[in-house]
Amino acid sequence: MNISNFINWSRENGIKSTASVDQTPYAGYGLFASRDTPESTVVVSIPQNLLLTSRKALQQSPRFSKPIFTYLSHKYNTTKDIQSIAESTDNERLILCLFLIYCKFFDTTTYWTPYIDILPTVSFFQENHVLFKPEYVAGTSLENSVRSKISNLQIEFESITSIQEDWICDMQFEMYLWADCIFWSRVVGIGGDEEEKEVSDKALIPFFDFANHSLESPNIRWQLNNGGIDLITYPNVSVNTNDELLLSYGSKPNQELLFLHGFCIDNNTEPSRFMLPLLPFFSPMEQGYNLPKVQWLKQLSVKPNLTLVPHQLNKKEDPLAQCGWTDESIRVMYLVSLEEDIEFIMEDDDSITFQLLGKNIPSLTELEAAVKEMDIFPVIQLRVAMLLLDALEYHLHLNTTFVQENNETGLWKQANIYRSEERVTLETASQSLSTLRDELMQHPVVLSYLENA
Ligand SMILES: C[S@@+](CC[C@H](N)C(=O)[O-])C[C@H]1O[C@@H](n2cnc3c(N)ncnc32)[C@H](O)[C@@H]1O
């Protein structure tokens, strides 16, 4: 019923299509070819008036936009030009999410209702999205990202609902999470003009957004057409009646697919990165140089994580890079491991000057060059390897602690694909680090350092 309403609405509003929207066995709805279609042929054509942008949402009704203008006036502390602030690309996500909530829960008679009616529901995401089930990624490096996203959304939600006006008063956090899931799993960047902030960059596109993802064998792609959008078969790819029409959402690692969409791809060739929190290496904070080291890193705007990219053996010369650590992570770990010959000078403007062997070190790159010149460089490398080994063992333990072998439900199964991939990354890096540690333990510089210690 909902589907036929939606199809009628699509036709009445100018969508031309030789495709149908139907249930798939694995991903809710999908798009299917209704006839045999040759290569490079338009299968769906969506006119500009059906691209749902924040600007269109704001034009929908004063009841929707008035509380939003009130909120934005508070947020930006101005009543001037609030319409253009609302329409700016900075607020596109916010406006579109609030509009989804408005149409779904507060006014089910808008122009967009037939579309909103067939979008995945709150209960769908409660079962199938990590924003509703952060415990499914517990012990993996995605857990931090998911939990910090939830708390950021909570802060944003409380700030919006604090204005206590009309429908906004009755908004619940669950609705806000739902809208965020819908937004990020369907939004399309249609390329607004950076210079002209009022031009919309993001759109929700009915019909188009029922196309599911295939990394290896997509058979359709999209292109803009007079402000609207077309789905078109690839050159050299024809489709048969009832074939599912699949887009490529891009080469995304499972970490990103799970975070945004709630699914993973078996044997995904795009590697997920493991993010290791940096702060535990500086604990306790009052010890030695930990506090100035952290302040210096903040001054350089260094992110508070180390990054492990699955194995890049033979691609890099540095043995720590061969274990998978990014250049910045290695440089930061040199700083963590330095105990001797360093000094931090607090300047009058509260900035910190870092010196190694009496020489000013203004950046991490220069730190790396200076550390490599030190006589005890192999000792520093050994310290780094041992600290990282400890950290990886701890995270391997966390990764395996939360496994539920018998839970084969949809999202858990998807999260487990990612969890296993991360476990392999950690195990491989640990093995390489153990080998490096053993080699460094035999290094003459290390042996003489230990003898004299
Ligand atoms: C743009 S929508 C596609 C339409 C969606 N299936 C629906 O029922 O509304 C993207 C969502 O479809 C699902 N999806 C797309 N491709 C998938 C795939 N290859 N495997 C599993 N789920 C997929 C995910 O839930 C994703 O967030």
TrEMBL record:
**Per the database record, which ranges form the SET domain?**
13-250
**Pfam families, from UniProt?**
SET (PF00856)
Q: Which PROSITE patterns match?
A: SET (PS50280)
- Using the record, list the residue span of the signal peptide; answer none if the entry has no such feature: none
Q: Which PANTHER family match?
A: UNCHARACTERIZED PUTATIVE METHYLTRANSFERASE (PTHR13271)
What protein am I looking at? SET domain-containing protein
Native source species: Mucor flavus
